[in-house]
Amino acid sequence: MAQKVLVHRLYVRIFHWLNAIAIFMMIASGWRIYNASPIFNFSFPDQITLGDWLGGALQWHFAAMWLFVVNLAVYLVLGIATGHFRRKFFPVTPGGVVHDVNDALHFRLAHDSHDYNNVQKLFYIGIVLVLLLTFVSGLAVWKSVQFQLIGHLFGGYEGARIVHFAGMSLICAFILVHLALVVLVPSTLLPMITGKGKAFPKDLEKNHVA
Amino acid sequence: MLLKRKEPKLLLPRTKDIINLERRFFMRQTLTFGALGLLTGCNVADDSSAQKVLDAMSKWNDKAQAALFDPNKLALTYQESDITDPFPFNAYYGEDDAPEVKEEGYKLELSGMIDKKDPWTLDKLRALPQESQITRHICVEGWSAIGKWGGVRLGDFLKMVGADTTAKYVGFKCADDYYQSIDMASAMHPQTIIALTWRDQILPRKYGFPMKIRIPTKLGYKNPKHIMAMYVTNDYPGGYWEDQGYNWYGGS
Questions:
Q1: Whole-complex ipTM
Q2: Could you tell me the CATH number of the domain that includes residue A25?
Q3: Residue A120 has what pLDDT?
Q4: Cα-flanking dihedrals φ and ψ of residue B181, to 5°?
Q5: N or C: which end of chain A has fewer CB atoms below 10 A?
Q6: Inter-chain touch B29–A55, beta carbons under 8 Å
Q7: Are residues A59 and B58, on separate chains, in Cβ contact within 8 Å?
Q8: Å from A26 to nearest chain B CA?
Q9: Residue range of the domain that includes A120
Q10: How many CB pairs under 8 A join A and B?
Q11: Which among A138, A37, A60 has a CA at the least distance from the CA of B7?
């Protein structure tokens, strides 16, 4: 039997699933709020939104917000304090990204949940930054007077609305790619639940943990 | 105060029946999502459990917003050229149904924890020191528009009539059956005004004649129009939309 190693620590798994729930609730309710006054020339089908009317959607959005923010804060603090980010997300080099993108396009890039390639690193750093951007622009929309300094960063209230929408769009794009890869490489799913995954030979050599 | 700009729905008042119906659907949806087990730790089979969590979170958000509120932080002000023209009409009914209040015989009623409860005519209010502001009105729906309002600072007025400014709430009753209430800290904010004018003219009917409470630190639905009575109280008065599920604090 293949040797199993710890791929995802417990706090990473808890963060991941709580974040998935929070993001699902925020996006689904956010679409309903968007529908009340669309920025662009389209609306989201009401059937795929959460809250059933504007008032309900707002309740969901601002309740899920706390789960999202507290969970993300704990993850960031632990990720930095334990060296998790430094070990798993860095270094990323431009040359490495080009090399790995090229490999990915030729279907020769291994999707290892343990030792990330440059494309994975870029993706995971990117999504954390996008989550932060969406959070910060959301603050400027939610409290445009109290957080008006943040609003200035985005060109004021209306600018913050657009950035918040763009952040949501990028998160959706990430989720689509993320889920597509889970379908392509199903063995990545179980480690995010149990924590344990197949060891790659280099893991055993380096004997490092997630 | 909060319906859409371009929606034909504006022509059809959103009656309480429709809203109740929507609310029932909303409850049912919370049941569905509850059944997915998204809200662990509460009895999700009971549809009111999910709703209780949401209501509790909304109350928590009232407290969070009160804590974030800085009584000295001013909303951004704009230039005359920034004013949105035409400024959108918004209410829970169509523009033609806006109440027609006559100046003749009109008096602003005062009640509750206020010493001098004598009613105020518009002329008496116009004789008080006036302020004007060009600020952004932000609707809970997301859209915003810039307008110019002028009138009396609500905080100065409350002090003048001997209101107990340590009380929790200031409530408003409107000619269109709308009702609203705000926290005392927001009532005392320097940009919170009893608006008597719109773009330097007497406030027109569609924007809330005889007066609108203009609060640039709060969302549109917290800015009631057609004010007939004002009162100070420690008993939570709620609000027209809040009693259907909107967040009470509604800060910006």
A1: 0.88
A2: 1.20.950.20
A3: 85
A4: -150, 150
A5: N
A6: no
A7: yes
A8: 13
A9: 4-206
A10: 100
A11: A37
